[in-house]
Write a structure and sequence with these properties.
2 domains; four-stranded antiparallel β-sheet; 16% strand
Length: 269
């Protein structure tokens, strides 16, 4: 906001030298306490020789109809109303207000100077006041709304009223109090009306014979059978040691296909 304020000042002033002097006065602390009122800011600017000048900068206030549009726009946007009620300035408030036809920030020719030095254009004193005001706007953006005609307390009270009215439930046109749906049913009335409920359906019929378990059709393959025989041959000999008999084929030259013979094999955990 401060940058837009200084841009409006620099676009309005005709003499750039006066602006440079005013910027130097503001940097050196020559601007006294700034008084902010609706439509006007005032401060006393002192030069190095001790002479003091009262400087005023005027800004047009918003009308009642414009304030009504501004408040309606702020209430319709949840982010704006939440930030304003928390005494924070929403980041896009100025842009949304501009879309609604409201210019919060000043433009070219909106800052009208008045100074006791009798300069008709922006003098170094009013320029220093404007530069000091730009710093105040960056610190407290509500100062801009005060200059436009509404103080912080008045603005927040109006926003709370409008927000509460918007959140209140609205009745449908054409409905009366007798046509409203009741909120609930009393427990004794619900218990007394149990006889009016339809009966439960009959249970399903029982089968003639009890069911039987289907036999398993899963077959064991040769690898599964060999692994079963191998793990069943384990036996414990002593604590910490296991031995097993590892099956092997018959000796060469025999025609038997059965697993015969034992070969001792042991391992330690």
């Amino acid at each position: 906001m401060g940058r837009a304020w200084t841009k409006a000042l620099e676009d309005t002033a005709l003499d750039g030298e006066q602006l440079r002097k005013g910027r130097r006065y503001a940097r050196e602390g020559a601007v006294g306490a700034v008084s902010v009122r609706p439509g006007r800011i005032t401060a006393v600017v002192r030069e190095k020789d001790g002479s003091a000048y009262r400087s005023d900068v005027l800004l047009q206030r918003l009308s009642a109809e414009e304030w009504d549009r501004f408040l309606g726009m702020a209430v319709e946007r949840a982010g704006h109303i939440a930030a304003l009620l928390d005494r924070e300035m929403p980041p896009h408030l100025v842009e949304d207000a501009a879309e609604a036809g409201l210019e919060l920030l000043p433009g070219i020719g909106d800052l009208e100077p008045e100074c006791s030095c009798d300069t008709w254009d922006h003098c170094p004193h009013t320029a220093a006041l404007c530069y000091q005001m730009a710093r105040l706007l960056d610190q407290d953006p509500f100062v801009l709304l005060l200059m436009r005609g509404r103080g912080e307390r008045e603005l927040l009270d109006e926003l709370q009223v409008r927000s509460a009215a918007r959140a209140a439930p609205r009745e449908t046109p054409g409905t009366c109090e007798d046509e409203r749906v009741p909120e609930g049913v009393r427990a004794d009335e619900a218990f007394a009306a149990r006889e009016a409920l339809p009966p439960l359906p009959a249970p399903p019929p029982l089968p003639d014979e009890p069911g039987r378990r289907r036999p398993s059709t899963r077959r064991r393959g040769p690898r599964r059978e060999s692994m079963r025989r191998h793990w069943s041959s384990w036996r414990r000999t002593r604590p910490g040691e296991r031995t097993a008999c590892w099956p092997r084929r018959c000796r060469p030259g025999t025609n038997s296909s059965r697993w015969t013979g034992n070969r001792p094999w042991s391992r330690t955990r």
